[in-house]
Amino acid sequence: MRAVDGNISKLIIVKVIPVPVDSIKVSDSVGAIGDTVVPKVNFFPTNAAIQTYTLSLPSPSTKVKIDSGRKVIGLDTGKVTLLATSTDGGKTAQFLFTVGPVFA
User: Fold this and answer.
1) Residue 49 and residue 88: Cα distance in Å, rounded?
2) Is 12 inside any structural domain?
3) The domain containing residue 49 runs over which residues?
4) What gap in Å lies between CA 39 and CA 58, rounded to an integer?
5) CATH assignment of the domain containing 59
6) Phi, psi angles (nearest 5°) of residue 83
7) Which segments of 1-104 does DSSP mark as H helices, in order?
8) For each of the chain's 104 residues, which pLDDT tens digit applies?
9) How far apart are CA 53 and CA 26, in angstroms?
10) Which of 42, 43, 73, 90 has a CA between 20 and 30 Å from the CA of residue 23?
11) How far apart are CA 60 and CA 10, in angstroms?
12) pLDDT of residue 10
């Protein structure tokens, strides 16, 4: 960017710094057997530049499986604690996923 004032000009360099993730929060989620659910992940501050995450299981589970690092698939009834990790800064949040029975 160049600023001109009369006969004087000055080159101004602007450096844009992306807003980093400070923390994340994930709402507890519910799904039926066979459902694929994308949990609601909130990033703070809300204007953080990179709002992507991956999901993982802190311990092995037969109740759910993780698909593509972002989706939870219900396999059997029960409750499982999952972990979301932000791509930016590695911020983590645990949440509870409940797999309920399928009602017709």
Assistant:
1) 9
2) no
3) 19-100
4) 16
5) 2.60.40.1080
6) -125, 130
7) none
8) 555 666 777 788 889 999 999 999 999 999 999 999 999 999 999 999 999 999 999 999 999 999 999 999 999 999 999 999 999 999 999 999 999 976 65
9) 11
10) 73
11) 61
12) 79
